[in-house]
Amino acid sequence: MPAKLKVAVLGATGYSGMELTRILLRHPRVDRPVLLRRAESHLSKDAKGGAPSESGNGHLNLADIFPALSGNGSYPLEPLAWPVLKQKGVDLLFLATPHEVSRSLVPEAVANGMRVVDLSGAWRLKQEQHRAIYKFKDEDAATAAELTEKAVYGLPELNGDKIPSAKVIANPGCYATTVILGLAPLLKAGLADKDKGIIADSKSGVSGAGKEPTARTHFVSVADNLSAYGVFTHRHLGEIAEQLQITSDEITFTPHLLPIPRGILSTIYVHLKHKTQAAEIESVYRDFYKSKRFVRVFQTPKLPEIQFSLNTNYCDLGFCLAPDGQRLVIVSCEDNLIKGAAGQAVQNMNLMFGLNEEEGLL
Amino acid sequence: MPAKLKVAVLGATGYSGMELTRILLRHPRVDRPVLLRRAESHLSKDAKGGAPSESGNGHLNLADIFPALSGNGSYPLEPLAWPVLKQKGVDLLFLATPHEVSRSLVPEAVANGMRVVDLSGAWRLKQEQHRAIYKFKDEDAATAAELTEKAVYGLPELNGDKIPSAKVIANPGCYATTVILGLAPLLKAGLADKDKGIIADSKSGVSGAGKEPTARTHFVSVADNLSAYGVFTHRHLGEIAEQLQITSDEITFTPHLLPIPRGILSTIYVHLKHKTQAAEIESVYRDFYKSKRFVRVFQTPKLPEIQFSLNTNYCDLGFCLAPDGQRLVIVSCEDNLIKGAAGQAVQNMNLMFGLNEEEGLL
Amino acid sequence: MPAKLKVAVLGATGYSGMELTRILLRHPRVDRPVLLRRAESHLSKDAKGGAPSESGNGHLNLADIFPALSGNGSYPLEPLAWPVLKQKGVDLLFLATPHEVSRSLVPEAVANGMRVVDLSGAWRLKQEQHRAIYKFKDEDAATAAELTEKAVYGLPELNGDKIPSAKVIANPGCYATTVILGLAPLLKAGLADKDKGIIADSKSGVSGAGKEPTARTHFVSVADNLSAYGVFTHRHLGEIAEQLQITSDEITFTPHLLPIPRGILSTIYVHLKHKTQAAEIESVYRDFYKSKRFVRVFQTPKLPEIQFSLNTNYCDLGFCLAPDGQRLVIVSCEDNLIKGAAGQAVQNMNLMFGLNEEEGLL
Amino acid sequence: MPAKLKVAVLGATGYSGMELTRILLRHPRVDRPVLLRRAESHLSKDAKGGAPSESGNGHLNLADIFPALSGNGSYPLEPLAWPVLKQKGVDLLFLATPHEVSRSLVPEAVANGMRVVDLSGAWRLKQEQHRAIYKFKDEDAATAAELTEKAVYGLPELNGDKIPSAKVIANPGCYATTVILGLAPLLKAGLADKDKGIIADSKSGVSGAGKEPTARTHFVSVADNLSAYGVFTHRHLGEIAEQLQITSDEITFTPHLLPIPRGILSTIYVHLKHKTQAAEIESVYRDFYKSKRFVRVFQTPKLPEIQFSLNTNYCDLGFCLAPDGQRLVIVSCEDNLIKGAAGQAVQNMNLMFGLNEEEGLL
After folding, report:
1. Which of residues 323-342 of D touch A (CB under 8 A)?
2. What pLDDT, in 10s, does the model give residues C97-156?
3. Residues D182 and D324 in one domain
């Protein structure tokens, strides 16, 4: 049996990082992951990812933050130091960090010879118009531009050919994964009438909003409630447009905050150019995803629900065609922390290192 | 002080009927309502409305079914008998019954000189194409046709002029209320480009699915979940189309089941004919609803959330305009059991009997 | 009709204060309440009650914080100033403030001739051993001691005779209300074997933890969870012991955090001195509460549930007796924001001013 | 590598059976399980376990019932037939069936040479006084008595020595597992003062109530609620008493229904005979469970919460000692479908067949 992969995780104290750690701990082809924390100077920026309750002496144990991990030993977090990572022979660094942290760390990582899977939005966007919303301040603009160009958008079902050789994987956004996978076959087949506008009405569980306690994530604010937010302004709009090769005016994307811990359902509305049969639609989807392990196309009239994909790496797709044969409703579901984040990151890792795509993910 | 209204409620054992009873018990201008149950022969059909756990001797107390009512006395349900209702001088009969029951009882009630507010879908639709989905089997087709014609769709913000003199009020559907109120001003102003299709993506709490226990309403099926259902086929589509005077091909309506007990949020997508300013949109809505007590138009960029309207008779409206000035997202919220059912029924009652529209509803 | 009461509320931006405001706005015998905010210097201490998102110019509108209030007009908060309150003829000041704020404001209020209902724990405890946990630092110890002595524990079912003439009402804690009302009849009747220890296992919705966002109140931490906290150390233990005239060693009180927004259920375990019949227990409870409007004694074997008392001012009691006739389980439920806070405060107000005890509360 | 185990599951359409199937499908030492359904004549009795929506021709696919299973192939259910099971070389039969079904099937299975893990309550009780509540009607009383005697109560942490050779494992009840594991060390150490009574106040998620839709499991009945039930009468009381070797008068057990899909927290109250130190208590628990893989003893003052054990096979224990050193509160948590059912069943299987106790369970 070949040697196991050596990987490190920075940001295991956030929801995605924790889920990633949980998956990696069970992965049969990966050594126990090195869990990293940022050097002291960075700690204050860390709030978005969930500030760890670090003890005074710098010891930090992941099991203190996620007691569900307890009982399988100790999980100390050690400070990020490139020489140490190299000495340990780390093959791959996962960044589950805020985007501005990822934006500054990835060039360092690459300079130190690491391959990286970045779960933030830092390296997902090729077009300046979409990237502007993040307000990145790159210290070395030339390197940043080069890495922006080289980084591969890690959606294996679309970019599977570029992932194996990628140095930097920009792991897709959670919402974006459901919308892109829901629309890609249809757009590729040229069936959608984009002039009439595409609508993606998405609903996400609260873990998508991060671990930081805010008025918006307070239990009493979320329970017994539903709210729309970020209409026309959500950051995932850019990556959806880029990956689907449409403009951000051709799609309207509305996120909503659901009173559940995790899971996303996107209801997607498309006008078709011509009157079409349901069977034709279904075969377009089945053909597109026929060799894709982690997309499940439901048989009409069955529609996916959030529960079906929870705790799995699947993106589930189903659809309904209007009686007029020209309006299509696509329902796309996933677990936002798995296919929408940590699971997809591991799927990318598997492809980068020639492992079975589904290893550790079933 | 004038004499109080005398009203009766059939179906108080269901969610809407219970909420209605609760409102009526507090209403300062209404006598304690007569609570009715159907004669024995009808009991077997009652499941949809929540079968009462009737004791063998025919005594049934609403407080046994809804213990929250306890402590304010006893709430016996008495069998529906027209002579008794007439003798008691009942002015108005509320029907919170399954649509097929309402379809057969309303003609009887009218023949017995009663005015009726029917909370079911039995009398809402004027067009046969929309009504077909209910598969009504009218015993007296001529009377049914006549009543269908005369029944007033009880949305006070649209049909306020016809309600005072109506004999039969068809109280609107819960989803329909949010969608119609969200779209009416825009369509009346001629701003919407209907050719590009209108989308109403609606999400409802579980009380909308009725009190009957089913696999779909089991707690474990609903919690931590979200699901779409009835896409292109939901019964409320017809009343939305009729009231907005559009065809059912011009609007796509998708209901979803939310993991909350009550409340609806509809996210509505409209293309505008021309590039428009947000201020113009806002003034269209404010003008339309300026004297309407129970519609609250939120100031951009604030959007309503389900919580804001819970336990109130408000329908809350807010909107976002795309940077291109041509795509509009409207968010419409209500408590499905109040503005979407019982509260609106009482609002109709107030208008029918010349009371203050808001009496008993604040 | 006599003039309406004039009242003021400080702390309307917290959960209890908001609920109080909502009740007062509907109360037929109370003028529209004066809504207060603390002078600037106090604002930093305000976090526990939910820091208001105050606009720069000092204008603060309650409807901005609780949009559910919108549509009934504007709700400006004005700075607390005693001369202004006197000039407005305010009869009663409600304090829905953190306990240290109440501890310092009540002496000022009394010195200014105000009567006060304080919803915090500041003035509930007579015994120094119980009060120690609050670590009060009284500026004027003598006055504080005097007020501590004079303040009436505002549980109308126990202290109804002292409330009408009270200057300062210490409104009971939410948990304490359920436990005291659940046990008082039994202890008074001398049926309980205190040597074997009394257990109160209480479960509360999240609004009881206050509006401040913390890791503990984050939706993802609470949903799909249950946790015990404050075992043997919760502040309500003292008031339970004092009101029941037992020691804090004779009762074990364990609070738990429930994944619901509001409501408390306490399961209380008592050993009886002698083998007893259920009918005797029931009559002890019925006698004790026979003229008490807001306690509902359920008939064996029916037990109250949290839902039954939500949005009401009731405390619901039920019980089960063991086959051995010597072990009793009492279930006590309430809405923590109403009977456990704002509703009880209004009930106290009604008694203080000679109104009907239930006015505005049904 | 040795041959994999061959197992069959009857009742995979219920919650526990489904969870069991999910675990077995991932178990590295078990062949793909044979999924069984009962012969036609039994189908009507099946309701409690969740009636499958069987197609007319008798084909039934588990993925139709639990779509989360989809994408990993097809899961046909085949009719139970002993000769077929023998021919397939099935080593072990899991029964996730109602107790009356298990009561009649286990003798058949044993007669056919099968070993059985039964997840129901059918074979858990040795004492007639406790068993009476189930009202079993054994066809062959002598065989039933013999099997009752021989069946091993499958709590590995207590009966680990008898499990390897057992023919029939009576898998423990979900509530019972938390209570027994929470109390066993203390009782064995002789620290508890049983005369003062032990209290187990337990709270369970709704999956514990089974998959059948009832008024009690309707989402609207459970959400925003908490209720106690089965006080002094719950079936698990008998197995708790038997395993702890106490009488059912020495312990008061109160189950509650929590508004969450899964998980149990039991708060257990014990009087100690003598004033004791927390360190002594902790060492009693640590010693008792020192080699037990699936019990985690939390370090004082940390207490387990339901979330920590969800989706794991752990039972988590923590405790608080009163200042008087004589009252102990123990908190015991588990996932009711895993350590409380399916996971424990697999743990038993591992021990029965000489596998690593934790195989397939981490």
Report:
1. none
2. 999 999 999 999 999 999 999 999 999 999 999 999 999 999 999 999 999 999 999 999
3. yes
- Can you tell me the distance from the alpha carbon of B227 to that of B221, in angstroms, rounded to the nearest whole number? 10
Which residues, including other chains, have CB under 8 Å from residue D60's CB and lie 6 or more apart? D37, D52, D54, D76, D77
| Interchain contact, B223 vs D223, CB within 8 Å | yes
Q: Are residues B111 and B11 in the same domain?
A: yes
Spatial separation of the C-alpha atoms in residues A292 and A180, rounded to whole Å: 14
C359 found inside a domain: no
CB neighbourhood size of D15 (10 A):
25
Q: Show the tokens assigned to A353.
A: 């290192």
Query: CATH number, domain at B183?
Result: 3.30.360.10
To test the contact with chain D by mutation, choose from B53, B220, B225, B337 the residue with the greatest count of D C-beta atoms within 10 A, namely B220
- A358 inside domain: no
User: Would you say residue D50 lies in a domain?
Assistant: yes
Residue C72 — pLDDT band, cuts 50, 70, 90?
low
Pick A224's closest partner by Cβ from D224, D298, D309. Answer: D224
Mean pLDDT throughout A103-114?
96
Residue A308 with chain D: CB contacts under 8 Å: 67-68, 70
Which pair of tokens denotes residue B152? Answer: 């007033």
Q: Which residues of C touch D305 (CB under 8 A)?
A: 225-227
Chain B from 271 to 310: CB within 8 A of any C CB: 296, 298, 302, 304-305, 307-310
Same domain assignment for residues D11 and D130? yes
Question: Range of A225's domain?
Answer: 174-336
Q: For residue A44, give the CATH number of its domain.
A: 3.40.50.720
ipTM > 0.85, yes or no:
yes
Q: Which of C256, C307, C331 sits opposite D228 (nearest CB)?
A: C331
Clarify whether residues D153 and D195 are in a common domain.
no
Candidates B70, B72, B308; nearest CB to C68? B308
Nearest alpha carbon to residue C361 among C298, C265, C292: C292
Name the neighbours of D, counting chains with at least 3 Cβ pairs within 8 A: A, B, C
A224 touches chain B (CB under 8 A): yes
Please give the C-alpha separations between residue D50 and each of B135, B313, D47, D97, D346, in angstroms, as whole numbers. Answer: 31, 39, 5, 10, 22
- At residue C111, the pLDDT reads 96
Q: What angle, rounded to 10 degrees, do the helices at B15-26 and B343-352 form?
A: 50
Q: Which residue of D has its CA nearest to C216?
A: D305
C180 and C163, same domain (yes or no): no
Confidence band for C42, pLDDT divided at 50, 70 and 90: very low
Could you tell me if B329 and B347 lie in one domain? Answer: no
Catalytic residue at C174? yes
Cβ neighbours, 10 Å, residue B142: 8
pLDDT digits (tens, 9 = 90+) for D187-206: 999 999 999 999 999 999 99
- In a domain? residue B265: yes
My answer on whether B57 and B168 are in the same domain is yes
Residue of C nearest to A214 (CA): C213
Task: Tell me: do B93 and B210 sit in the same domain.
Answer: no
Of the residues A226, A264, A267, the best mutation for testing chain B's interface (the one with the most B CB atoms within 10 Å of its CB) is A226
**Structural domains of chain A, count:** 2
3-state secondary structure of A215: helix
